[in-house]
């Protein structure tokens, strides 16, 4: 499981840096698509369809009118116009919800409402606006209607199966379910639907310095921002976040939180902090005792310290990804490593965010790791995608500067082997909120 080490130019005895792509490949090899569950249709929004949908019947299931008007035979009104209207006797009414009416007599019309079944023999509907329907009562013909224009056969008629044919595959397994797909399911009689199970992701923040968000500040303490941030991101990429709270920097507390995550059936455990080289980073020793873990120094900035492995729970082996504690570093590590793993379990494709090429608004420097700069991208009037790392008062790109992450709408990515980029040079960008598809 341990990835190949590479040589670096770091100081002697420093752990080797693992390439980003190699670390990601190793992580993703431990994740597979999850099974399915059945949910009510009103709970299916943004879920992933587990099985193909085969239409059990035609849609529409019967011929019906697309307009309020008169059902008739097109042959009976050839040549009709406002100058030479054609009079037809009216042979009843067909309303929405009625059973199919009797056969329409030759040379007659039937008043019909939108969605109502056509009588046998009728092949056309003329809208009320094209008849004497709107005339004053004294000018209307008795026991009949004047047709004021001819109409082609089939006009304003919805044929049975013109939308969907019985036996047709209308949705493919793996399709995301949005309002239009849910409407189609409902129209085909599916009150429940089998969807891919959402990955349950346990989220655990570690550190004696952490306080809940609603706690008053105290000397040497900070509020736990990672849990809320990671929970929101887990939900955004289709997972079910399971916040586990804060674990203090001691082995008993960490083991208790891991046991809780395993007991509730988490498919992945995310921890933040405790995987660096500090004196009180206890996560490493506990994880090593609870499963098979590897602790890496990854060639990424920010987010170099990373842990990955599996925690044993009976016959189950639950993957665990240990993210850095600094919130921006944690965000970058989630974006690069956790996000594709969760999407793979939930069968959400593609795994990686869309990548575009933008022009830099200012020069940037790099230190030999793949650098995910927090940035803001926009399109010029000529359509050119441009990106800046210094807008809105940004002074520095520190791994603890949350305000810059909140300002940014993308990561601007400098490759490992690039140390400097000039203004107007191309640079790859990936949206932070890429589910919103604002990157066409």
Arrangement of strands in the largest sheet: 1-18-20-21-17-13-16
The main pleated sheet reads as: 7 strands, mixed
Q: Mean pLDDT across all residues, rounded? A: 91
The domain tally reads 4
Structure, described:
This protein is α/β, with parallel strands linked by helices and 440 residues long. It has 4 domains: 17-35 and 197-345, MoaB/Mog-like domain (Molybdenum Cofactor Biosythetic Enzyme, Chain A, 3-Layer(aba) Sandwich); 37-59 and 162-196, Molybdopterin biosynthesis moea protein, domain 2, CATH 3.90.105; 64-158, Molybdopterin biosynthesis moeA protein, domain 3, CATH 2.170.190; 356-433, Beta Barrel (Beta-clip). It contains 7 helices and 28 strands. The strands form 8 sheets. Strands 1-18-20-21-17-13-16 form a 7-stranded mixed beta sheet, with helices on both faces. A 5-stranded mixed beta sheet has the order 8-5-7-6-9, with no helix packed on it. The protein has a 5-stranded mixed barrel with strand order 22-25-24-26-28. Helix 1 packs across helix 6 and helix 3 packs parallel to helix 6 (327-345).
